[in-house]
Amino acid sequence: MNSPDARRAGTSLRRRLLVLLLAPLFLLALISGLIDYRIASSTAETAFDHGLADDALALASRVALRNGELAVDLPPAAEAILRTDSEDAEFLAVRGPDGRLLGGDADLMPDAVEAGRSPVLTDIVMRGRPVRKASYAIATPAGLITVAFAETTNKRDEARSRILAALLIPNVLILIATFVLVYFGIAAGLAPLNALSRAIEETPRTDIRPLDGADVPQEAAPLVAAINRLLDDLAASAAAQRAFLSNAAHQLRTPLAGLQTQLELAAQDLPPAHRSKITRLVEATGRIARLAGQLLALARSAPEASAGHPVETIDLATVIAENGSDWYDRALARRVDLEFETAPAPLIGSAWLIGELAGNLIDNAVAYAGPEARVMMRSGVDEHGKAFLEVEDDGPGVPAAERERIFERFYRAEGQTAPGTGLGLAIVKEVADRHRATVSLRSRPDFPGCLVRVTFPAPDARAGDGTRGP
Amino acid sequence: MRILTVEDDAVVAAGLVEAFSRAGYQVDHATSAETAIEALATTQYDLAVIDIGLPRMNGRDLIRHIRRKGLSLPVLILSAHDALEERVRGLDLGADDYMVKPFQLPELLARARALIRRSQAVSSSEIRIGALNIDLGRRSADAGGVAIDLTGREWDILQQLALTCPKVVPKQKMVESLSDWGNELTPNAIEIYVSRLRAKLQNCGIAIRTIRGLGYRLDELA
Q1: Would residue A60 count as lying in a domain?
Q2: Percent of chain A with pLDDT over 90
Q3: Which end of chain B is more exposed for a tag (fewer CB within 10 A), N or C?
Q4: Is this complex scored with an ipTM above 0.90?
């Protein structure tokens, strides 16, 4: 999930899962909360209503017929008890058959209810406040008495908000917990996929061997299989292309050998004054031969060509000792002084490819440093235990603008007249990539000449990496 | 000196035959391994130059056949394949040297001379390089009949260079073979002996090259 691509909103698996999981969960929590709230608040309401009804009945029991007159026997102390409530204001009223107020608050009107039935509860507004009112009626010999007992809704509101809080808090906590679990759970669940994408990302672009699908989750297996099918096709077509290149280069060599031999013989036949033309032809043939060889080297440095040359522990000093004599002659032919300074430098790789790499480095230095230049090749192990190979010359160096491009295939520096195919450094780069080696370049003006250094990974680090070596 | 070339490409074959003929060798040419086997059965050659990619029986099988028959003539492989294991395989089969096509004639002739020289040194204990005659048995050298006066160390160096030519004698190997118990020669001392030897071998058609960091090489001047 760390790469910018994976974070794109439209394709984020995490976001999709979060939305898909959390939206229904939120809805469910809302519905269940509503239902709980309704049930809990109506239970509380019923309990409060019971109390209110009891108060109304108690009030009604205080009505007595005294001297033929209806009267409310409600001494101030009893009224105080009835009206006492810590939270709410209480109102009461007792009215006679003609609606005359027998006692209590004049602005409270009992509803017209049937005598003897349980108190009827209604919501009204009194003195600008919402009030719950219980109305009750009793039939007396003197006529119908109506009683009303009312209280403000503070207790009820308080109870409702407590119920709401009691329901809301756990539900919100559950939602938050789910969000957190899903958010990080998805990351953990996607870890194998991330590992897979890292594995793909860390693989050199030229490495097109199938991915290892062993640790991939079941769900991603079809993806890996599809990628591997694609890689297989790619490998097959690349292999076919390389095979063609390799074949073509080989096929070129025999006719080139014939041509070169005949030209050399023809040159011997001619008087020295006329030899120069043939000599140029021989040189041109040599360049074609060199190009064929380099195309072969490029074809062979491809990862899928690994079957062609064994990977083993080799020593750069040995590779130099075996090829140095040929390189010396190539330099000598251009009047370049080639020296060696070798120390044992073990690495795991292909001796043939490393030989090509080194030879191309020298050819490049010899060609661009020019006649009378000095070229030095060194091998050794650096302070990090890594084998290195370097070629230094005292030529004009490489302009900063061209340092990246000189490793491209067929790139030739502007105005360059030195003979070359433009493939030498591309081969250096390919072979280095193949061995996971890094190529660095120092040049004028901050270095007296030009120094190309190839640093190979330490042999131990490479040994642990079994599946995707060269 | 008689050389057998086994090569199926007509142009290359013609070039080889002509180049060796001009260099003073007698050359027989075979276009297939089968004809080469017949030729080898009846004629004694000093060198066989064999192409790997032959029709039907290939060059590797031919070399195997030659060594199985107990023939000890030096064999030089000429191949369009330069992969290392191809080279190693060829040399393992009993070939003495390996050259990749296309080749330069002077190098081919130098390698051929070196192969013949080494195989003859075994039988006659004499080596000829350029105008130089080296008699390994008598530990003496002369150039065109004029004896060259060499010290023991100079002789050892020349012998080693001549036997290894045209390859490089690593400096360390030179140091080891010239040093004896309790008398380790420094590379500087070797350099002094080599330059003295160089001075004595002027005008012999040879050059002793110092490849700094690698060693010494005896070159035959064309």
Answers
A1: yes
A2: 13
A3: C
A4: no
